[in-house]
Amino acid sequence: MKFQHVPASRGALWVRQGLAAFATRPLAFSGLLGLSLFASFAIAFVPVLGPFLLLGMFPLLSLGFMIATRMTLAGQVPLPTVFIAPLRVDRARRRAQLWLYAGYALAAFLIWLLTYTIAGSRILELQQLLYSAGTTPEMIDARLSDGSLQLGMLVLFVLSSVLSVVWWHAPGLVHWGGMSASKSLFFSLVACWRNRGAFVIYLLVWFGVVLAAVILVSLVSTLLGQVEVGKVLMLPLWLVVMSAFYASLFFTFADSFELPSTDTGSPPP
How confident is the model at residue 136 (pLDDT cuts 50, 70, 90)? Predict the structure, then answer.
């Protein structure tokens, strides 16, 4: 599989393509996301191994949605079997995928362990404070002024970003390119770096989409004078945005590499 260099403006196109792919099969993509969330909750309760299995499923989740998007472009309806398709391959590719999942889980666990060593339980306390009904901006500001918490959050953000970049294309490179786990990680890092301008725009546009969704919900709840309405609307809107985001992952991969014998044209607007 050959590298492909794209201009920075391509990042905005990836977002539009993801939204268009979601609009083509909204129920299918929403259902896949709902199923993955349900599976995440179920796996989290598995004794001892649950947290590791939960961390390791993120690369499988992203690849499953990439397969779903490719099926949508081909005029097919993506089914939940997209999440087991990466394991229904030859032995070499299945072993490479399992190594990727295990490596991701271990790396994510080590990042969290380092963060906890620096910040202790302060990050968890901050999360509880954000979801508490009686929280005031002054209370959040006081918590954020903690130097250990700031350093821990910085370490978590930087290392998590590096982890995402290294693993971004890796599952797809194993699935469609037949690469080994180590080779796929290297080429994923190189591809993200070569197209870093497009990825920066891609993430900024998605941030704008999320911000616009939050503002829209806030405006509706304010006009209606009902805060509870905003809470009710936020969940389905979040599902739509997240589903569209996962639907866009395939386009970041298809533009970064020359896929073998595939049509990666855009879905209808």
Answer: low
Query: Is the CA virtual torsion 223, 227, 229, 231 positive or negative?
Result: positive
What confidence category does residue 153 fall into, taking pLDDT thresholds of 50, 70 and 90? confident
Q: Which residue has the tokens 């936020």?
A: 234
Q: What pLDDT is stored for residue 171 in this prediction?
A: 95
Give the residue ranges of DSSP H helices in 45-169: 50-73, 91-119, 122-130, 137-144, 147-167
Dist. CA 155–CA 151, nearest whole Å: 6
pTM equals 0.85
Distance CA 150, CA 144 (A): 7
Q: Which amino acid is located at 80 in the chain?
A: P
Strand partners, 3: 257
257 forms beta bridges with 3
> CB–CB of 216/5 below 8 Å?
no
Pick the closest to residue 252 from 209, 207, 204, 188 (CA basis). 188
DSSP state of 87: G
